Amino acid sequence: MTLHVTNTLTGETEPFEPQDPEHVLLYYCGLTVSDPPHLGHARSWVHVDVMHRWLEFIGYDVRHVENFTDVNEKIVARVGEDDLGEDEADVAETYIGRTLADMRSLNLLRAEVYPRVSEHVPEIIDLVETLVEKGYAYESNGSVYFDVTSFEDYGTLSNQDIDEIESQGDPDERSEKRHPADFALWKADGVDADAVAEHRHEGVDHGGDPPAGQTWDSPWGEGRPGWHIECSAMSMTHLDETLDIHVGGRDLVFPHHENEIAQSEAATGERFANYWLHCELFQMADEKMSSSLGNFVTVDEAVDRWGTNVLRTFLTAGSYNSTQLYSDETITEAEERWDQLERAHEAAAEAVDSPDARTKIEDEQLRRAVSTARDEFRAAMNDDFNTREAQSALLSIASAANRHLEADEPAVGDSESESESEKADEDKGYDYRGLCQAVDALEELGSILGLSFAGDTTGSAALAGEVVDLVLDVRERERDSGNYERADDLRDELEALGIEVQDTDEGPTHRLPSGEKE
RNA sequence: GCCAAGGUGGCAGAGUCCGGCCGAACGCAGCGGCCUGCAGAGCCGCCCACCGCCGGUUCAAAUCCGGCCCUUGGCUCCA
């Protein structure tokens, strides 16, 4: 079974075949760095990250490029706010730093390059010149527009009819365009002050008139790159004229991706991307999540609140290409799933390390379950990165391991006699081979979803763990002497701190609050 | 208006491409039991679905075909 992906270009699920059998060229349309990233961005990032990890897991060398749009009127609009900086570049820099930190906190694999528009203006100008020379673009009043009527396939990605498309871009440029659907490749002069004003936050003192934003010299005079040309220029610079996979949010299909295809293919005569994958968006329980409504949760808030593992479990709880409901309930459910995985992993790992671990009871079932789950995981991921199914496979390993640990009396068949099971009871032990396989599978497959079972065993977390153990020792003594009230108080107090206490046959165990920082 | 996606149990969410193993996965919630000083966790079992509506094809449809109703998103910056 090979990897199949749903290609927006065809609307079909197709077998994935990169141009080079060993390498995959992956481009992801990154952020405009004018605001802190929110959970919606995180959802796409995580899914792209899972794609990246899975492609590597099945043997490809992935060349992953993700841009930062650091030239944009929305960024100019932030100039003067708080301590974001004194000009467009400063603001962009601030947000790029913040974005990279957010990405790290989500345990994302790094892209190979994070190119920025401001560093690729010469390439952009070259590309625009080529388009003008080939007759796909025209200069008008110092700006350059792409002539959509000159590109036969315009509209295929988004299934649009050119005549149905309403004007792109701001009203001022309409008069300069031959066709309403034509879009800007290069814009004369600085940013439009009105556009900047429109994106400014209300009630914030920006200190005077909006700055013009950076401009560059070009064959058509001073100006700035248009809104779509950057991705074409940067992906060609860092990858190739033809990409294997181009990913982005569903909301970018039109006009952004449509325009990317037109300008790229017109310029090179080559197919721009073989597979277009689109990440679906969040749906809020009552309304949509959007910047304008201000109802989004920023990535750093979410990581603080839920922790990386819970968040990633949540974000991969649906397919990348289906919308996902965001609500307290759905995220709590994800937390529940993660807890289950983590507890099972911990129990299995502990059992493996314990002195009781030895081949004693039949673990054929466990081993079969692990192996089946691995197959299911692989099949799920190969089926258009079905992360929800993949989670199911993980959970089935967890419950198989739990079942095995539970059966520390050889209750595996139904035919034992009483005396046999009594005898075994005194002699109980775990078969560690199956458990080892379960632990390995959880770690290995979990890591493909970016989940990490490696608890924080360093620094303050380790110390905290020791302190909790100390408290639990005290509590055990209270319990031994029948002083349950006092013991329960201790448990309640630990619980109030987010520390989960469980009494087991082997003594009490605890879990520190997962992922919460500090 | 145009384009797209989708309507599956109390919730959430796979399965729909390649019709039968789907009387429908996994999880949450609920119920009963085991275990436990209690709780939690875990385990076992149960409960809950005529798969939006109508019609068609077929030995067989959640899955294919036709019609209808409804929801969401995009068409302006947007992951």
Automatic annotation (TrEMBL):
Compartment(s): Cytoplasm
Record domain Cysteinyl-tRNA synthetase class Ia DALR: where: 376-461
E.C. code: 6.1.1.16
GO function terms (MF aspect): ATP binding; cysteine-tRNA ligase activity; zinc ion binding
Keyword Protein biosynthesis: yes
Catalytic reaction list: tRNA(Cys) + L-cysteine + ATP = L-cysteinyl-tRNA(Cys) + AMP + diphosphate
Annotated motif 'KMSKS' region, positions: 288-292
Main location: cytoplasm
Binding residues for Zn(2+): 29, 231, 256, 260
Motif ('HIGH' region): 31-41
Cofactor note (record): Binds 1 zinc ion per subunit.
Any one GO BP annotation for this protein: cysteinyl-tRNA aminoacylation
Disordered as annotated region, ranges: 406-428, 498-518
Family: Belongs to the class-I aminoacyl-tRNA synthetase family.
Protein name from the UniProt record: Cysteine--tRNA ligase
Originating organism: Natrialba asiatica (strain ATCC 700177 / DSM 12278 / JCM 9576 / FERM P-10747 / NBRC 102637 / 172P1)
Origin organism lineage: Archaea, Methanobacteriati, Methanobacteriota, Stenosarchaea group, Halobacteria
Gene that this polypeptide is encoded by: cysS
